[in-house]
Design brief:
This protein is α+β, with helices and mostly antiparallel strands and 346 residues long. Among the domains are: 94 residues, Rna Polymerase Sigma Factor, Chain: A (Orthogonal Bundle); 114 residues, Roll (Nuclear Transport Factor 2, Chain: A). The protein contains 16 helices and 6 strands. A 6-stranded mixed β-sheet has the order 2-1-6-5-4-3, with helices on one face. A hairpin with a 5-residue loop joins β4 and β5. α4 crosses α5.
């Protein structure tokens, strides 16, 4: 989890909070109360920025920038809107500023047709090419109402976040605010400094674009029998029993491994990959990492020639009706710290 705001506040924090205007704004609320109110929105702002940007690391940067801008501008907040709306306005501007370039994040399946297990493995693409996973705990109130938890996880599915990246930034913000967060068009128009008609038009265009994108995928979360499936997966993986692993896969499973653009379609292709180019994962270790994007996640470690095991791949499994339908491998150690996984195993 990200540290609390008071541990990361800007050097100018005390000056702005103690300014006359900021003190007048606080009214009967203490400085501590005001800080707590801003900090209470961190998780939902992280979720919003993640959907906007498609990267957990960029979402962290955007939220931190939002918090810094909020404290620096606190003396200019006149209370015409709620503090929450004001924070969303700042976060939206931050995210739009961060998405002005032509690059949009994607999944390997968005960039090319499926490859075969014997295909040439092209060089990896830069990190900013890819959608990256996010920890459920950081963006979904997992101890809240079950219906709200399910809706929150649905809105961070990898396929949905990738689909959002097809939209221009302002359309993306409009769709997230209206469809995911259920804001009224009047509220969105005020936040974006536009008209209700423009909001409705942007929403209509965003829906039309998403209708052309493949959003098929399993519902997030786990079914009654999925715990046993995951135990079998871990056991088969650590024994590197390829037939047992493949038996857990649906025939049309999708297997991918950013930063490489190559992806495979079908259990037979995955079997050939595991027994061929992927054989380096044999005799490794795997640790559970909770949930990412509504799905069970694991950290995979390879044998380190210097001793022990080194981080290799962060795995997100998509499960449907007792079978694995999506096997997402995010290669490299970048995600391990974010999910609390150790940097090395003895």
């Amino acid at each position: 989890m990200a540290p609390a705001l008071h541990s990361r506040r800007p050097a100018s924090y005390d000056r702005h909070v103690n300014s006359p205007d900021a003190t007048a704004l606080a009214g009967t609320r203490s400085r501590h109360d005001l800080e707590a109110e801003v900090e209470s929105h961190r998780r939902e702002l992280t979720a919003y920025c993640y959907r906007m940007l498609g990267s957990n690391l960029e979402a962290d940067d955007a939220v931190q920038d939002t918090m810094v801008r909020a404290w620096r501008s606190l003396d200019g907040f006149e209370g015409r809107s709620s503090l929450r709306s004001w924070l969303y306005r700042i976060a939206t501007n931050v995210c739009i500023d961060m998405t002005r370039g032509p690059q949009r994040r994607a999944r390997p399946m968005d960039l090319s047709p499926a490859s075969t297990a014997d295909s040439y493995l092209a060089p990896g693409l830069p990190e900013e090419t890819w959608i990256t996973p996010v920890q459920d705990l950081r963006v979904v109130p997992v101890d809240g109402d079950p219906a709200e938890v399910a809706a929150g996880r649905e809105s961070i599915r990898l396929a949905f976040v990738a689909a959002l990246q097809h939209l221009p930034a302002r359309q993306r913000a409009t769709l997230i605010l209206c469809e995911v967060l259920k804001w009224q068009a009047t509220e969105v128009a005020e936040l974006l400094d536009t008209t209700v008609a423009s909001v409705n038009s942007a929403l209509q265009r965003a829906r039309a674009t998403l209708a052309t994108v493949d959003l098929d995928g399993p519902a997030p979360g786990l079914g009654a029998d999925d715990t046993d499936l995951l135990a079998r997966y871990v056991d088969a993986f650590e024994r590197y029993d390829v037939p047992s692993l493949v038996a857990l896969l649906r025939d049309d499973v999708k297997f991918n491994m950013p930063p490489y653009p190559l992806w495979l379609l079908g259990a037979d292709q995955v079997a050939a990959w595991l027994a061929g180019p992927g054989i380096g994962c044999a005799n490794g270790k795997i640790l559970p990492a909770g949930f990412a994007n509504g799905c069970p996640a694991f950290g995979s470690y390879r044998i380190d020639p210097a001793g022990g095991y080194s981080p290799w791949s962060f795995i997100v499994l998509e499960i449907d009706d007792g079978q694995i339908v999506g096997w997402n491998n995010f290669l490299g150690p970048a995600q391990f710290a974010a999910f609390g996984l150790p940097p090395h195993l003895d």
